[in-house]
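Limitations

Structures in this collection are predictions, not experimental determinations, and the ligand pose is part of the prediction. Treat each record accordingly. The example that follows, with pyridoxal-5'-phosphate as the small molecule, is included so readers can see exactly what is and is not provided: the inputs are given verbatim, and the output is the predicted complex.
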Amino acid sequence: MNKHFETLAIRSQMERTAQNEHSTPLYLTSSFVFDSAENGAGIFKGEIEGNLYSRFSNPNTDEFARKLCLLENCESGVATASGMAAVYTALAAHVQAGDHILASGAIFGNSRYIISQILPKMGVEYTFVDVDDNQAWEAAVRENTKLIYVETPSNPTLKTADLAFLGHMCISHDLLYVMDNCFATPYLQQPAKYGADLVLHSATKYIDGQGRVLGGAILGKEEKVRVCYDFIRRTGASLSPFNAWVLSKSLETLAVRMDRHCDNALLLAKFLEQHPDIEQVTYPHLPSYPQYDLAIKQMSQGGGLVGCEIKGGVERGKRFLNALQLHSLTANLGDTRSIATHPASTTHSKLKSEEQLEVGITPGFIRFSVGLEHSNDIIADVEQALNNSQ
Ligand SMILES: *Cc1c(COP(=O)(O)O)cnc(C)c1O
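Predicted complex:
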């Protein structure tokens, strides 16, 4: 019987121990004991299956990776210490000097930094293209292009990449297809169906969903994940067993949480759309979204993030943030608590205003990570802050 997403997320857990526990226990141990010298030798050689050391494997990290693998419809997976550990590993483990990375420009700031600042020191070249411009992607492929890197919906502007187009492009040019699925989660979008070779997560966001722990994962085709696993067990970006235990529990409620995040986000987007102080609302499942047809095809719901352009530029944006009472002003997203960010004065303030516009950040752009509070309270807070920030 093919089980549904929710059932897999709840019922895929490690085998019970002799204690007959109902919920998975936590294995806080750095190493594991061998039955004999021969057994130890076999495990070291990889001829006998078994745990050796928690940087290599641990029942909790394995359970989390296996479960996420099932949810993403991928063959294999490995857990990482954070989302950035997943991004860095997926890239660094697969490129060498002389290779070229083709990436969308509107990606998480630190991912952009790895591609444009860290990997070039090792002789890796890069090009950034607009995430939604299929022709630009195709035109930027070079002889030495090794992989493409993409996030959709993009951060923070929520544009949509055409996953199927990119899948075909990667096959025809023999490119590794790497996709950060953090904003959508496997509940809304499964990039492997479109040919993604490696699907990355910052589990810190919606997967934990409660703002508690850092974590990440790389899921994908067996041989590509194997390269990442070998890199991690030697470089040390392994997920801690405690965080894995928390995250594996969190996956049990991912579906119900995402349903509510999406419902609340759509209600907020509709409220903003009719408000006279709002210039433009960006939400993938609003009919006014420029790539609406693509977004409803790729994502089963619109996600928990809403963007809008507030009238009055940078100063109004700051006044609006200061007037919010319920929303948190913080750098995270995908939390139970609603969060508002103003990229022009915070995350992207180091960029010149032309550069901000290049990645789609206008002076009054606000990004909401819509939480799980009651939708009326979320909307009431935004409404009063709009009134009190004139
Ligand atoms: C937060 C985030 C990351 C980095 O994850 P950490 O867990 O903070 O290291 C990577 N990609 C995206 C899209 C993110 O939002």
